Amino acid sequence: MVNDRGYPFKWDVYPGNTAEVKTLINNVDACRGRFGLKNVTLVFDRGIVSDENLDEIDDQGLKYVSALDKDQIVNVGAIDLDALNGVGWDNFKKRLPDWNSYDESLTFKDLGVYEGRRYILGFNPQLRKDERYVRREKIETFEKFLLSKNRELAEAVRSRKFDKTKQSIIHELKRLKIKKYFHDPVLAEIILERTNKQGKVISVQSFQVSIQKKAEQITLAERLDGLCVFVSNHIDRNDESFIFPGQQIICAYRDKTKIEDAFKHIKSFLKIRPFYVYRNAHVRAVYSICVLAYFLNKDLAERRKKNEGIDYINSKNLYEPFRNGDMVTLKDRLSGKMIRKPVELSLNQKEILNKMAIKMPQMKM
After folding, report:
1. 3-state secondary structure of 110
2. Please, which residues have CB within 8 angstroms of residue 36's CB and are 6 or more apart in sequence?
3. Where are the chain's structural domains?
4. What's the pLDDT score for residue 16?
5. CA separation for the pair 173, 137 (Å, rounded)
6. Three-class secondary structure assignment of 304-355
7. DSSP assignment, residue 188?
8. Which of 351, 265, 352, 273 is closest to 314 using CA atoms?
């Protein structure tokens, strides 16, 4: 868990088979007692959204904010996809005059409560254009691949295996992430006559591949392009309006990137050798070291950003002024006593530390 500034203040390590919704509820219960939190709203990504999980969170008396996967949008009866047909970048303001603007890229409409849940429909006209372009490019790329593959199979000099050939087609669909838009490939066997090195005519088994597009699936995907749906159980009203406005629900969902950013930055700045640990206590210890290191990195970056106006959170330049900093270790051969002392800092280093309100400890020889 991180606060609104992105500082981690609580973390746990769970077994891999623990349901995510359980970890959410357990952490909230702990925070209620430990930190005295009230009016808790859980914000989580699409992977946790299911009827069972949302109902369980609701039963716990907790509020939540999340979003739906594209394939879940069509199941919400409050959404009229037909009303968005033909809406694009050039005409969305004219076609959607009663929608609200969240920012320069997202416009939204609060659909109200449907079957006990509140839905907010978001639309990004530029994203609609981009998603359709990318999908058509991928389909065209696959069709070119299939033509090349069939030419290769027609010119085969050695027999081809059915399963291996079929899997090569499926692999390309998966690589392009468009498998759901195509039926299974159909392989028609062909027999080719080839002359081997000894001058003998032999028969070579090969195939020609055909595959049909799922036109309805592609049409549905195009209708969903540029759309997003936020879901919440913040349904309390104040007279005619919701107490928790739609703008705030979208903002809360987008702010979950602070958690994602923390994981990303931990992986990017922390350079440590692999740890081979198996006991629960050891795993927790290693993870705690990583989070605490990130905490220090985050705090140092925030201090420098405040003074210099530069975001150093994921930059090697964060520590560049202290690259020559070092600690000297002295040992008395007679007594065996050891002391450590930092090398004298440069004027530039002292100035940076003073601006960040960081004091070096006084270490006497």
Report:
1. strand
2. none
3. 128-220, 287-355
4. 74
5. 13
6. HHHHHCCCCCCCHHHCHHHCCCCEEEEECCCCCCEEEEECCCCHHHHHHHHH
7. E
8. 265
Name the E strands within 124-226: 186-195, 201-210
Q: What is the pLDDT of residue 137?
A: 97
Low-confidence ranges of the chain (pLDDT < 70): 361-365
CA 56 to chain centre: 24
Cα distance between residue 286 and residue 289, in whole Å = 5
Per-residue pLDDT of 3-38, as tens digits, reads 778 888 888 887 777 777 777 777 777 877 888 877
Residue appearing with tokens 């597009």: 213
3-state secondary structure of 201: strand
Among residues 51, 8, 55, 1, the alpha carbon closest in space to that of 26 is found at 1
Q: String of b and e for 37-65 (b: at least 16 CB within 10 Å)?
A: eeeebbbbeeebbeeebbebbeeeebbbb
Q: Which of 45, 43, 48, 46 lies closest to 65, judged by CA?
A: 43
Q: What's the rounded Cα separation, in Å, for the pair 64 and 230?
A: 10
CA distance 248 to 102: 10
Among residues 324, 294, 296, 298, the alpha carbon closest in space to that of 311 is found at: 298
DSSP 241: E
Q: Which of 307, 301, 338 is nearest to 320 (CA)?
A: 301
Contact 170, 155 (CB under 8 A): no
Q: How far apart are CA 338 and CA 333, in angstroms?
A: 9
State if pTM tops 0.85: no
Q: How is 274-299 classified by DSSP, letter by letter? A: -----SHHHHHHHHHHHHHHHHHHHH
Per residue in 257-283, pLDDT tens? 877 777 777 777 777 777 788 888 888
Look up residue 22 and give its amino acid.
Answer: K
- Residue 206, SS3? strand
**Using alpha carbons only, how large is the chain's radius of gyration in Å?**
30
Give the SS3 label for residue 189.
Answer: strand
Instruction: Answer for the pair 250, 231: CB distance below 8 angstroms, yes or no.
Output: no
The answer to whether 27 touches 13, Cβ cutoff 8 Å, is no
> Smallest Cα–Cα separation from 297: which of 307, 275, 312?
312
Report yes or no: 58 and 24 within 8 Å, Cβ to Cβ.
Answer: no
